[in-house]
Amino acid sequence: MADFLLFTTALVAFSISAVCGGGAGLLLIPILGTILPVSQVPAALTIGTATSSLSRLWVFSKSIRWEMTIRFVPASLLGATMGAELLSYLEPMYIELCMGIFLVSNLPSLLGRQKETESIPPRSIATVTVAIIGMTAGVISALTGAVGVLFNRFYVRCGLSPQEIIATRAANEILLHVYKLFLYAGLGLFELKTLGYGLVVALAAIASSRVMKYVLPKLSREVFSRIGFSSMVLIGVMMLNSSLLHIRVSADPNLRLNHLAGEMEATLTWNKLAYSFEFNYGEGPEYEKVIPLSSLSIAQQAYLMSVVEEYDSILVEKVYSLAGLSYEANFFGPDQKLIKKVEFD
């Protein structure tokens, strides 16, 4: 049942992506995230997007703008290598959050009037510019498994027709996707389940390319652009929702606001660490971070032990304020009742 639902969703996603100039991968990230570990989503998605690029190369081969491809591909492969390395250090959910914010930022372009912009012939674009875009696409693609509509504005600005955008993007990305598959395999991100879902997405991509061959020629550039902005905003909303859900589960964020005598305090708990922001009406703003007692000097620890003899727990905070750096210790008794607060340098 899960395979059928994934195939149907992927077929619709790749069909929409053909009309929008991309975005199937971004649409499928939240869905694959519900059936696979987050770290394996890029690998499964790359199997499908690689197949999609290959099938679109076959269907729209006559529309490829090779003068862009030969400058784009080498930089994108370098970017993919960098992105695959970063995948071991960066949380994909934060990358997804940033991409969602970027995509939703296209809402003004969707709501406003479509202005006629002067097209730039691909041959006249500086090689460095194309290389930077290619490298950025490679990094993002390696981190998420998709890049899709993120660079549609660039292709449209170059004056490419809908068929040329689809074909040129496929040519630009096919080697990138194949290269990423080897990188993911080397990083141990492939499992049998990952491969299975990737093949389901791949079959949907092939079916979509055959269907959309007859739809794309009927679309004008204006309609194509408008649909593209709509998809970017929609995908952005979906990615924001997905990333926020993942952040909520993994980081368990909690924000508390307290209005105490003479000051206002906001406390953010993130990954079991607490960060406080205070505004004291007499002293101004303060930033506080909870630190372990052991991080204090021996003299500071001895001083605290001499201040309060009996307590159940102690919370030490490092305080940054306009007056400089200081420390604050909160001593708690039974039922976490505050016994005493001590400020020291």
Q: Could you characterize the architecture of this molecule?
A:
It is a single chain. With 345 residues, the chain is α+β, with helices and mostly antiparallel strands. The chain folds into two domains: 2-250, no CATH class; 254-344, no CATH class. It has twelve helices and seven strands. The protein has helices spanning 2-20, 24-32, 41-59, 66-86, 92-104, 107-111, 127-144, 152-157, 162-186, 192-212, 221-251, 298-307, and strands at residues 254-260, 263-270, 273-280, 284-291, 313-321, 324-332, 338-344. A hairpin with a 2-residue loop joins strand 2 (263-270) and strand 3 (273-280). It is elongated, with a radius of gyration of 26 Å. It starts with a helix and ends with a strand. The model has no long low-confidence stretch (mean pLDDT 75).
Keywords for this structure?
345 residues; seven-stranded antiparallel beta sheet; 7 strands; 16% strand
Order of helices and strands: HHHHHHHHHHHEEEEHEEE
* Integer count of domains: 2
Number of strands: 7
Into which percent range does the helicity of residues fall? 55-70%
Structural class: alpha+beta
Strand content: 15-25%
* Regions with little confidence, pLDDT below 50 for 5+ residues: none
- The total of helices stands at 12
